[in-house]
Design brief:
This protein is of the alpha+beta class and 202 residues long. It contains three helices and nine strands. The chain has an eight-stranded antiparallel barrel. β5 (116-127) and β6 form a beta hairpin.
Length: 202
């Protein structure tokens, strides 16, 4: 199992290639004089910087800018996933929703059920050595109905190990989670991507 994160060596390689291309474009096509080198250098670095801003927000989602997985393997999970959550030994599955906001360098997860709302604290992608399966490790905080007192709420932390499954072009999330409630609980969730629109509710 290996954690997936932005590869600085690959980012540096792409940046150098862009600088070289832009230099030759300026030198041979735009005919920028050598005495204007500081202006040229500033322009080149600005363009490269804007490229990475674009890549972080949008470009990483598309194969052309991802260099077909070479620059990043991270799956694009932006959007709303709907399914169910079921605590172990209860056999009482109920509706559960995950909404994800993701860029190349960051990801935030929000969860919703009938009685609870939660959000991610940390999130990391990982894959097996053959990059055949992807996993999503998530630490989160949640507020839900108390297990002991009917009219009160519990705030607690939990950990999820989510397998990311791509089935006929649609992402599915299969989760096994553990909580630090009192008493501790554990369970499973099964969810399927339903669209890009976020509702910020169940």
């Amino acid at each position: 199992m290996k954690v997936i994160s932005p590869n600085l060596k690959k980012i540096t390689t792409v940046s150098v290639i862009l600088v070289v291309i832009l230099y030759f474009v300026g030198e041979y096509f735009l005919k920028i004089e050598s005495e204007k080198m500081p202006l040229k250098a500033g322009l080149i670095m600005s363009i490269v910087g804007l490229y990475w801003v674009f890549f972080d927000k949008i470009g990483w989602k598309y194969d052309f800018f991802r260099f077909w997985g070479w620059l990043t393997e991270i799956p694009n999970l932006n959007g709303r996933f709907e399914g169910f959550v079921d605590r172990i030994d209860e056999n009482n599955p109920h509706t559960f929703v995950i909404e994800i906001k993701q860029t190349f360098t960051s990801i935030v997860v929000y969860t919703y059920s009938k009685n609870s709302k939660g959000h991610s604290i940390t999130a990391k992608f990982a894959t097996d050595e053959l990059s055949a399966k992807f996993y999503f490790f998530l630490n989160w905080q949640c507020r839900t109905k108390s297990l002991k007192k009917e009219n009160e709420k519990d705030d607690f932390f939990g950990t999820s190990i989510i397998e990311v499954i791509r089935d006929k072009g649609i992402y599915k999330l299969s989760d096994e989670y553990y909580t630090r409630r009192n008493p501790p609980t554990k369970g499973v969730t099964e969810l399927e991507w339903v669209g890009k629109k976020l509702k910020n509710e169940l």
